[in-house]
Structures are given as C-alpha cells and as structure tokens.
Amino acid sequence: MDSRATRVLAITGITLLSGALAYAYYFDYKRRNDAEFRKNLRKEKKRVSKAVAQSKESLQSAKVDGQPSTFEEALELVRKEEPPASPEEKESYFMSQVAMGEQLSAKGPSHYLAAATCFYRAMKVYPSPMELMVIYEQTLPQPIVTVVIQMMSADVSPRFPSSTSDQNVSDDEETSSTSGGPPSETSSQEWDKVTDPGAHATLIVIFTCFRANAACDLIYLLCFYEAFPPKSMKTRVEGRRGRKVLIVTEDVAAGEVIYKEQPVVTALDADLQESGKYCAHCLRSIQSGTSVELSKDANPINSTFCSKACLTANKTQSHNLLFTSESPLPPALGQPLSAEGRAARLKAQERYIALLKKEKRAAPVLLGRFIARQIAVETAKMSNLATPDSDFTNAEGYLLADHIERLRYIDLKPDAYATLLGKITYNAFGVCFGDGRDDKVTRPEDVEKTRTPLGTSRQIGTAFYTLSCYLAHSCDPNAHPSFSSGTAELSLVATRDLKKGDELTIAYVDVKKREGETTVECRRRRRIELVRGWRFACPCQRCVEEGKELSGEEKVIDATLEKDGSKVDAVVSRYDSEVENNNVE
Questions:
Q1: Are 14 and 348 a contacting pair, CB within 8 Å?
Q2: Which of 40, 234, 402, 464 is least crowded, fewest Cβ atoms below 10 Å from its Cβ?
Q3: Kindly report the CA angle at 279 between 293 and 494, in degrees rounded to 5?
Q4: Contact criterion met (CB below 8 Å) for 202 and 21
Q5: Closest CA to 460 of 484, 481, 490, 429
Q6: Residue 202, SS3?
Q7: Which domains are seen in the chain, by residue range?
Q8: Distance between CA atoms of 441 and 53, rounded to whole angstroms?
Q9: Sign of the C-alpha dihedral, residues 514, 520, 524, 526?
Q10: pLDDT for 91-146, tens place per residue?
C-alpha cells in the first residue's frame, strides 16, 4: 500500500467508523428539536416566496391548460413522475422539457410557474445540475429562477405530509419554540409519527442524499454568507478581484481590536509537543509544576495541558476519537462498537499515530483534529450541550464542512485527502507570543508555511480559524494578528485608521526590511516565501513601487513568478464568478 493510501486510511478511517452514525442522529435531531433551525427555514421560504408572489397569485385565478396552478401541486406532480431510465430517454426528456418551458415562459408571468416546473424537470435528469442552474440564471426571468430554486429546496427535504396550520404561519408562530418545521413544513410532533427514530440506516441514506444533492449545495451557496460572519465581528466577506476577502463594516481607529477569534483546532510545533512547556489545546505557556496530563496509556503523543478545562475540552473535541477507544457519541445516542469495529478503529489509530511520529508536522495533526471536531460539534448539538461563548466563529445552521468547502487551497495531489490537507495548510496561522521564539532550527525546505508576520520560524504552534482565513496578504498591511491573551485566541488589530468598506489585509510573512538588506533583497525574500507557501506573486502597491528598482534581468525573473496558484472548489468558483459579474441576484 503506497504512502498516500496509508495517509487516507490513517486520517479518515476512524471517521468512517463513527461519523455516519453521528451525522444520522444529527439529521433527525435538527428537524425534531431545533426551533431556531425551523424558524430560519420558514423565514427563508417566506423571503423566496415573496419574489414569486405575482406568478403564484395569477395562477391561482387562471389555471393553465394541463399545467399545475399552485406551487404545491407542481412539486407534487414532479415528485410522482417516474424519471426516464436510459441516457437516450433522458436526453429526449430534457430537450422536450426545456422547449416547453421556453414556450410557457414567453407567454408571460401567468405561465411562470408552469415554465419553472418544466425547467426543474429538465434539471432533474441533467448530468451537471449546477452548470445548468448557472445557465438558467443567465437566460431566464428571475421569478422563474427563484421558483426553480424553491423547488430544489423543497424537493431535497423529507417528503412527509404537511399540516394545514403550518402552511399559513404568522410571524408570531415563527418565533415560537413549539412551531413546526423542517423543510417540508412538518411539525416536530408529526415528524415523530412518520419517522422511526431507530431507523439509523434510513437516516444515513437520507443525510447522504441531502448533502450530496447539487440542489442542496446551491441553496447552501446562496445563503452561507448571509449567516457568516456574525455581525458582532464587525466584518463581512465580499468578492473582489476573483476571490473572497474580508471587509470592515464600520470605521476603526489605529490600534483598535477589530475582532477576537478562537481557533477551530490547534497543533504545537513538533519539537514542542513533548516538551511539556506549552498546552496542547490552547497553546498557553505552562509554568513548571502546574501542568495537567493524561494517563500514559491514553496519551500516545505525550500531550500536556495547562488546566483541567483544556484537558477536558481537548478530549471532547478530538483526543477521545483519535487516540482512545471511548465512543465519540454520548451514551444516550449510540450503542458500543462491536469487537470487529473496535479492532478496526484501533488499527486506524495506530496508523495515524505512526504517521504523526514519522512526519513530525502540524498538518496531519490539524487535519485529524478537524475531522474529529466536526463530529464533536454535531454530537454536542444532539446532546443539548452548551457551546462555549469563546468557541470558534460559526455560521448558524451550517456545518464545519460548509466552511472548509469554501476556502482557497493549493493542489498537492489529486485526491480528497490532499485537497482537505491543502485547505488546512493554505489557511493556517502561526501562533507567536511577543517577538516569537528564537530556538527553532530547521531547514527552509522542511518549514511548514503559516500566516505570521514574524516568520514561521518564530511560532510555537499552528491554528486554523474560520473567519481570519479570509484575510488577504499585503506587504503593507492595515492590520496584524496578535496573541496578547497568551493563548491561540487571535485578536485582529488595526495598524492604521480604517473606513467602513475597507478591505482588511495582514502580512503572511515577515515583510520588514532586515539589517543589511537592500530594498530589492527584502522584496525578493518575501515574494519567494509567498510563492513557496501560497503560490502567488504579491500584487500590492509596495511591491509595485519597489519593483521599479529592479534591473532588467531581475524583472524577467520576477515576471516568471506564479501569479496565483491557489483555487477554490469548482462549484464555488463558478457561482462566485457569476455573482461578481452580476449574473446572479
């Protein structure tokens, strides 16, 4: 078995054993118990329905020959139809539905619902629904596009009967904790009647289909940045120059803390992991004699903690799943693993531990903890466990997986493990206290590049943040990350006065001119570091101005640097491109 396959098994094997059951319970739980989740879905449905009110209202009074007169009737017709089986039948069906939809669309608003039904039928048999949706958004009237999106949202929901009281809900009912509804508008009581909470296999299939369906992905794409980041962070994510960046939403004075953010996961530098000098969870410096440790048989990587609180949090978030035989699910939610399951899990853990000790790098530690953290976050919701106020920056109603799929990364190898690893490493921050350490001796080719203005050699550990990863680089930044709390909590501090709408930038590398270094040498050093770590040639104004001092030969060499070798997932890239070109409302 080659090293790549070994890594995949080591990192993801334990997740395959535990993740499916955890997510299956979560899928059922959200629809039965999370009133806020139901409220948000109702609000979204209400907002979308407003855009097509004219179409639906006109169709109520004038039914088109042979066509549905209400949204519910149209959706039910589509659901009852048997899809064509062979590729030839699908192609013929697709062409006929598109042609019929175009004819109905041309007849005006009173035929929009019928037209949308045809276009949605065509989408259900098209091999690349997301690409077709982009075409729809460019060519069809917006009310039709909105109805198609509404159909997708409703069709990926569990198909259970709705109560008439839930279909006409008032604003007061929406805020009630006892009001119904998951996407199908089914109340939690009705859900209990039609769902067997013990049917885990069915729930796993439902959840897999729900997240894999392209329609569901589109709904997530449309709404994610409405929920993230929280307004309390005083920032928003915006598309500029073909990529997502972070914008400040109010004026900020120089020296002011714009926001504070806790990491999702952390990892100490390999040479410090077993030193006992720093907490393996929050990265705080540990005073002699004050450390808290796990038992040796449950601590294969020799982690040390600054307090019982950090030890408990680390065990809950990742350690138990990655390094022990304890169940990742609370007792009330899951049955113990079988003997075969325990043996398989132990084997995967042994491979993972061997990988960590062989590579001595932060990336596989961060990745393993990130996967484990996803499960921990969702099982905490199922158990009604409170989320700490100081936890990572999240988007309400979304999963950690929804954050990671939107991030930029560098292709390492063409497989899922490498893609996820690339996203973690591309967006990781170096944690430095004060002026950083000066005792780290490594060869440049062995250094894992992280975002830190002091230089990677100065850090004591690495951390991954959901919000700060949107900060762009500049050699003349208007903000800098600070770890003044003595932990991995990141404080973003303005380096100069900022106006509402300004793009926030930080330095990914040490951009200061060092003693004995010329301007050209300083520019060359930082640009080489940026290409090695993030594969882009910095286009900032400082680099442009300093580039004027280059010789003719140096300008030729500088022009060969890769402009931007990073990317985002294809589906996110296509949608972002349409938004930036104003082709998507």
A1: yes
A2: 40
A3: 165
A4: no
A5: 429
A6: helix
A7: 3-24+265-391+394-426 (no CATH), 34-227 (no CATH), 429-573 (2.170.270)
A8: 66
A9: positive
A10: 889 999 999 999 999 998 888 999 999 999 998 888 777 678 778 888 899 889 88
